[in-house]
Amino acid sequence: MKLSINQMRAVEAVVRTGSFSAAAKELGISQPSVSNHLSALEKHYHTLLIHRNGRQAEPTATCREILSRIRSVLAMTDEIELALEGRRRLQVGSLRLGYSTYQFAMPILSRFMQGFPDVDIEARDMASNDLIPLLLDGKLDVIFITAKAQPDVMHTLKIRTERIVLVVPKGHPFEMKGLVSWQDVATQSLVQRETSSGTRSLFEQAAAKAGVTLNTVLALGSWGAIVSTIQSGMGIGVAMEGEVLPSNDLVTVPVDDDDLTVSHYLACLPEMQHVAAIDAMFKAVEPRG
Fold first, then answer.
1. Cβ distance 276 to 89 under 8 Å?
2. What is the set of domains in the chain, with CATH numbers?
3. Which residue, 68, 66, 43, 255, is CA-closest to 163?
């Protein structure tokens, strides 16, 4: 038998209150439970800890000898419980987060931070296929990723489904067409995300299925760089429709391909989904109609 925290609490409460009944009331357990805790200790260690004098309880010399150490252990235990309770209530703590599309992740992160301002956030902006290994290795707690279907071996929540579209400057000939073919796409210089981008991977797979060879002239690591490049006339972009904001001053043009859609997910490891901060992040996702 190992000495337990509950047994130490029982010893300390009995000595401090002077009775088994008062200790039981303070601890919120029955009087027989307090007696059983003490009896089990005394029986196991062949040592009398409490003198029972009717309704009165007095510590033995052995009990007095160890009482200060018991109280020290209980004080440290209380500190640990307070720290853990703070994390459970998200009064303290941290969350390591990765996102591939800030336009989708930031509104959710903002709601989380408004509800739990004391949680420290470490956020990384990376392509989806770079984020997944970091999650699986335990280096990130939650990730926002783009994928055609729900990823395996992860607990996920679908945030939204988007068309993959071309992004062009206002006045571009494609804006007038409204819908372009894969043959139209093949004639253009494309500006895309890095090769580990989920959006790029799916776009290139769809092009290959249509028998089209793409002309990607630039691979950039940020949406801001892509916007600037498109605006400067160096090529047209590929993005999820929801990535393009009015402030970008650009136009989206769909490709004539019904399968050119992708979903955005919030994901964590299955065994981590009930951790308070991770659970709260999932709850910060507002359902879309």
1. yes
2. 5-88 (1.10.10.10), 94-159+264-283 (3.40.190.10), 162-261 (3.40.190.10)
3. 255
Residues in the chain: 289
The count of other CB atoms within 10 Å of the CB of residue 227 is: 22
Question: For the whole model, what pTM was predicted?
Answer: 0.73
Are 280 and 206 contacting, i.e. CB atoms less than 8 angstroms apart? Answer: no
261: tokens are 């859609």
Q: List pLDDT tens digits, range 126-153.
A: 999 999 999 999 999 999 999 999 888 8
Q: CA–CA separation, 157 vs 282, rounded Å? A: 7
Going from the C-alpha of 237 to that of each of 101, 154, 176, 221, the distances in angstroms are: 15, 30, 17, 13
Q: What are residue 50's DSSP bridge partners?
A: 59
CA distance 233 to 29: 75
Query: What's the sign of the alpha-carbon dihedral 180, 146, 152, 279?
Result: negative
